[in-house]
Design goal:
Length: 318
């Protein structure tokens, strides 16, 4: 397993394998370290471990970070050394033990004869018994800040289980509501291909009659993107979701941030690195536009930082 050495000498400063890590202005050094370790895990296609020396007090712990960004602190038994092998305790005399079971006591040693006791005197004790191996030391104390960040990151950075379904922004006309209900029923029954064909026909009809940017046509396009995701066609899901987000972003619609987040959820499942760079750059452009208009919430900022890190990592490889 790839292993890294992380040193955090103070707030705003960090080194990974002696390489200085630049932290964005206003960003957290701990989040920056975790983001960089996630990128290394993505590059290796497997979890990585890092020995972290955190803060002037020198808190020392080992962190494992998976490609999806989830992380956890390792206890003494789980830690590996730089070669990727778990450190083995030194052999100790005594009976063999089966892993997971208590030690099986061996036969008691034969008593060592000593001098015969003299009447009226206390007996002379024989040699003291040899003590058994000392218990393993408890893990070193952890930095409260780093542990809290690790727990929060592990909870917040789980991979998107599914692209969230779009929610209508306004009441639909009765005839449109009936068609949407039919599409939803097909989806609930697992007839995804049939539901996709229905929603594509609906989107095309609404686009012809009302125009591409009409709210009803955009609702249908968002549903089409969601069903493409359910079919496993993540490229089409990303393209459709981006087109909805692009229009809402351009018109200043309050639903633009949510639409960009849905597009980002579809984008994270792309397997084509070049396509991911192109579409990821468009996501970043839209977030920059919202940021300039003062419409980017803290949650959107965090998502934008994660996407930027992935785009930069992919750009270096494609």
């Amino acid at each position: 397993m790839p292993h890294f050495a992380v040193r955090i000498p103070g707030e705003g400063l960090a080194e990974i394998n002696d390489e200085v890590l630049v932290v964005e202005e206003g960003g957290s050094v701990h989040e920056a370290v975790l983001d960089r370790l996630q990128r290394h895990a993505q590059e290796h296609g497997a979890a990585v471990e890092a020995t972290v020396n955190d803060g002037p007090a020198g808190a020392h712990f080992v962190l494992r970070v998976a490609p999806d960004g989830s992380s956890r602190l390792l206890d003494q038994a789980e830690r590996t050394d730089a070669t990727g092998h778990a450190p083995q305790p030194p052999p100790a005399p005594g009976p063999a033990r089966v892993p997971g079971q208590a030690p099986v006591p061996g036969p008691a040693p034969a008593p060592v004869p000593g001098p015969a006791p003299v009447p009226g005197q206390a007996p002379v004790p024989g040699p003291a018994p040899v003590p058994g191996p000392a218990p393993a030391p408890a893990p070193a104390p952890l930095s409260a800040v780093a542990a809290a960040v690790a727990r929060a990151r592990a909870a917040a950075a789980a991979p998107p289980a599914a692209v969230p379904p779009p929610q209508p922004s306004r009441p639909l006309a009765p005839e449109l509501a009936d068609r949407v209900a039919h599409i939803n029923a097909l989806t609930a029954a697992g007839r995804i291909e049939a539901a996709s064909a229905e929603v594509t026909a609906l989107r095309e009809a609404l686009t012809r009659s009302a125009g591409t940017e009409h709210p009803d046509a955009l609702e249908a396009r968002a549903m089409e993107a969601y069903l493409a995701h359910l079919r496993g066609d993540h490229r089409e899901a990303t393209v459709l979701a981006l087109s909805v987000a692009r229009i809402l972003c351009g018109t200043g619609d309050p639903g633009a941030p949510a639409a960009i987040a849905r597009a980002a959820a579809a984008w994270q499942r792309l397997e084509d690195g070049r396509a991911a760079v192109i579409h990821g750059s468009e996501l970043l452009h839209m977030w920059n536009r919202l940021r300039g208009d003062g419409r980017l919430a803290p949650a959107d900022e965090r998502l934008a930082r994660r996407v930027r890190a992935q785009v930069e990592s992919l750009s270096a490889r494609v």
